[in-house]
Structure formats: structure tokens, C-alpha cells
Description:
Blueprint: H1 10-19, H2 26-49, H3 54-100, H4 102-114, H5 120-131, H6 134-146, H7 155-170, H8 175-179, H9 184-203, H10 211-235
Helix pairs in contact: 2-3, 2-7, 2-9, 2-10, 3-4, 3-6, 3-7, 4-5, 9-10
Amino acid sequence: MLQHDHGHSPEEIRTRLxxxxxxxxxxEWVYGGIDGVVTTFAIVAGVTGxxxxxxxxxxxxxxxxxxxxxxxxxxxxxxxxTSRDNRERLRLVEEDHIDRNPEGEREEIRQxxxxxxxxxxxxxQVVAGITANRRAWxxxxxxxxxxAGDDAKTPLRxxxxxxxxxxxxxxxxxxxxxxxxxxxxTWALVLASLTFFVIGSLKSRWSVHPWWRQGLQTLTxxxxxxxxxxxxxxxxxxxxx
Length: 241
């Protein structure tokens, strides 16, 4: 079943449009969550493969959760902020173009909507309607010329969601070593696998693919990364002596 079904009465449409687009941070949770599990389990697998103390696993794992989690959050925040700043720069550029060469900018609108199938009097009415509203005019130019439409997400929340996902999901492979259960690496592998599958399954809510396919895809990617880390740690275990 497709998600985001909503009513189409005039009042429902008016209320929904007045509220503006819904900000979705699913990308940050999927990206941050997968990266958190992969990097934390890579440390667990690498250190275990090298036959080092579980205490080392905990120390390195916690350092990774905080350090790498903050680094990812800072990177996500900076990228989102840069994108927003660039969009504002392009807005000023387009406003300047309209001020200096309004007829040239109208022609751009004309050709944009002609390429979408409009022609004749209908096309001229579209051009007249859009260019009568300066804000709408610039918004369309940003989207059509630069693919830089407005984003409902704020840079700060992008960073916070990324950090939360990284720490929450990344803590799963580390939990058996913190709680000191028997055979912690086996439990870490189980928890990491389940977490990969859950993340993949949940992201199917925003996909046309079935949940089990998304889950298996994410699980496969995660286990490949974990296997590589374990193999490297196991191969270099002799250097720990």
C-alpha cells in the first residue's frame, strides 16, 4: 500500500499547503544508522580478529561512537548549511538577472514551459502568470536551471538526526561487550545483523520495494563490510604481540 494518503477536500488541501512541505529526515537515519553499525562492528570485528582484549573493544567502540558520530553529524550539518547558502547565493544571482535583463529571463521561463509541452496562447498565459510574481519566478528558475529547490530540512536538525542514528544503531554491536555476556562477538554479530535488517526493512516504508528485499540488501552490505574488517584484523593478529 502506498503511504502518505490524504484528503482532497478544499479545506484539507488549504490546510496542508499552508503547513508547507513535511521535513523528512529518513535519509539521515538510514545513512547515519548504517554507518554507525558498520563502523562500530568493523572495530569489534577487527579487534576480535586480532585477538585483543574485550576491554580494548569497549574503549575503541565508545571512542568511535562519540568521535565518529560527532564527525558525521558535523559533516552532515556543514553539507546541509553549504547547500542552503548556495541556494541563497543563486537566488541573489537570479534576482539580479531579472533586474538587469527581465526580457531574457522571461524567455527562459517561456522555453522551460515550452519544453514541458505548452504552446501558443496557453504558454504565454503561463509565462505572464509566473513572471507577475517575482518570488515564484525566482523559485522556478532555481529549480529548473540549478535543481536547487527549497528544502524543508534545517542544517541543525540534519546534524542532530545523523548523530542520533549513528549512536543509537552503532551501539548495538558494542552492547554485548559492555554487558559482558558470554561469547560477546557472536552476540555482536547477531545484533549487528538484526540492526542492518531492521534499518533496511524500515526504509522500505519510503520505497516501492518490499521490506524483506530492502532488509536483505542492507544486511548484505553490512556483513560484507564486517567480514572485510574481521579478515584484516585476523590477518594482522600477529602484530599485536
